[in-house]
Amino acid sequence: DVQRDKKMGEIDARLVGVEKDKIRLRWEVDKSEFYLRFQNVEEKKGEDLVEVMADILAEALEITIEKMKEGMDETFRVFTRYAMRNKLPREVHIRFTKKTIKT
Questions:
Q1: Do both 2 and 13 map to the same domain?
Q2: Which tens digit of pLDDT belongs to each residue from 60-88?
Q3: Which of 4, 9, 81, 91 is most buried, taking the most CB atoms under 10 A from its CB?
Q4: Could you tell me the pTM of the whole model?
Q5: Same domain assignment for residues 26 and 59
Q6: Gene3D superfamilies annotated for this entry (predicted)?
Q7: Alpha carbon of 92 to those of 1, 27, 39, 102: distances in Å?
């Protein structure tokens, strides 16, 4: 009886440790940025940036454009000093949803 209680206590302590690790990991994932930055993507007047980037990424990942678009949360261009100094197109930043894109 005493041994069984001791074993139960050990298992309980391990479970608490695993739960703490899981919570810590979830917090780290939530606070991390899910952005990809792209340089030298040509800018065109009236472009559909989501469409342009979905085409490029879907081809690279060998998935459908629709599936790629589902994973993209936010797509926008950003001025950077480097791009301005070197007369390059603005960077493209894409924020992805936090689900895994299956290939």
A1: yes
A2: 999 999 999 988 889 999 999 999 999 99
A3: 91
A4: 0.60
A5: no
A6: L1 transposable element, RRM domain
A7: 64, 27, 7, 23
